[in-house]
Amino acid sequence: MGLLPDEAKVLPPPGIVNRNSVWFGLCGWATAMLHNSLNRRPALKAGLHRQALFITVGWFIGYHLTKFENYKYATLDRDMSEYIRLHPEEFPDKGNSTWKSSRIRVLISVLRFSLY
Amino acid sequence: SPYGSLLSSLLFSLLLVFSRNSFIASKPDPSKPNMLRVGLAFGSTAVLWALLFKQHRTDVHEYKTRNGLE
């Protein structure tokens, strides 16, 4: 695995049909259709080999991207759980959460969002 | 030299592919597809799907082994 360390293999792998594969496959198909249109060919009926190749390339990239994304989210979750485990005083069972713990949760959700 | 004619034919074919010289240029003809390119495109499509399914199989097997599920 190029981008992922060995520990990522513990995570459940995404299915062949996964969110990034579908999206990148559709984008590849749109690219092929745009290529047809810009060369004054019928968008859907021409260049089927090109459409198939672009969809496949998108699907392939999407699968590996989903794996990478799952690993990144898993590491963030692990770090958050570890922080909560080491600082139980900031996460009382009852009552309002402390300012510091809510700040940590916001920081981690911002970090997750920044992956996009 | 023995490689002179090979080099010149290579250069000529490159010139055909990469030039728009109106003396030798021609419009791409959709009724005569470049079957080599079509074959390569479909071939690499098949290769990529095979690689994807193989990788997925390996990933599922690794996951099951490492979590003691099989």
TrEMBL record, chain A:
Q: Which terms under GO biological process does the entry name?
A: mitochondrial electron transport, NADH to ubiquinone
GO CC annotation: what is one?
mitochondrial inner membrane
Compartments, record wording: Mitochondrion inner membrane
Tell me how this protein sits in the membrane: Single-pass membrane protein
Presence of the UniProt keyword Electron transport in the record: yes
Q: Keyword set for this entry?
A: Electron transport, Membrane, Mitochondrion, Mitochondrion inner membrane, Respiratory chain, Transmembrane, Transmembrane helix, Transport
Top-rank taxon: Eukaryota
Q: Which family does it belong to?
A: Belongs to the complex I NDUFC2 subunit family.
Q: State the protein's purpose.
A: Accessory subunit of the mitochondrial membrane respiratory chain NADH dehydrogenase (Complex I), that is believed not to be involved in catalysis. Complex I functions in the transfer of electrons from NADH to the respiratory chain. The immediate electron acceptor for the enzyme is believed to be ubiquinone.
What is the designated name of this protein?
NADH dehydrogenase [ubiquinone] 1 subunit C2
Organism the protein comes from:
Cyprinus carpio (Common carp)
Phylogenetic classification of the source organism: Eukaryota, Metazoa, Chordata, Craniata, Vertebrata
Automatic annotation (TrEMBL), chain B:
Name its species.
Answer: Cyprinus carpio (Common carp)
- Compartment(s) where it occurs, according to its Swiss-Prot or TrEMBL record: Mitochondrion inner membrane
Keyword Transport on entry: yes
User: Predominant location of this chain?
Assistant: mitochondrion
Topologically, how does it sit relative to the membrane? Answer: Single-pass membrane protein
Q: How does it associate, per the subunit comment? A: Complex I is composed of 45 different subunits.
Q: Which family does it belong to?
A: Belongs to the complex I NDUFC1 subunit family.
User: Function, please?
Assistant: Accessory subunit of the mitochondrial membrane respiratory chain NADH dehydrogenase (Complex I), that is believed not to be involved in catalysis. Complex I functions in the transfer of electrons from NADH to the respiratory chain. The immediate electron acceptor for the enzyme is believed to be ubiquinone.
PANTHER family in UniProt: NADH DEHYDROGENASE [UBIQUINONE] 1 SUBUNIT C1, MITOCHONDRIAL, NADH-UBIQUINONE OXIDOREDUCTASE KFYI SUBUNIT
Keyword Lipid metabolism listed: no
GO cellular component labels: mitochondrial inner membrane; respiratory chain complex I
Kindly state which keywords UniProt assigns to this record, in alphabetical order. Answer: Electron transport, Membrane, Mitochondrion, Mitochondrion inner membrane, Respiratory chain, Signal, Transit peptide, Transmembrane, Transmembrane helix, Transport
Matches recorded under InterPro entries: NDUFC1
**Protein name, please?**
NADH dehydrogenase [ubiquinone] 1 subunit C1, mitochondrial
Region forming the signal peptide: 1-26
What are the TM regions of this chain, as residue ranges? 35-53
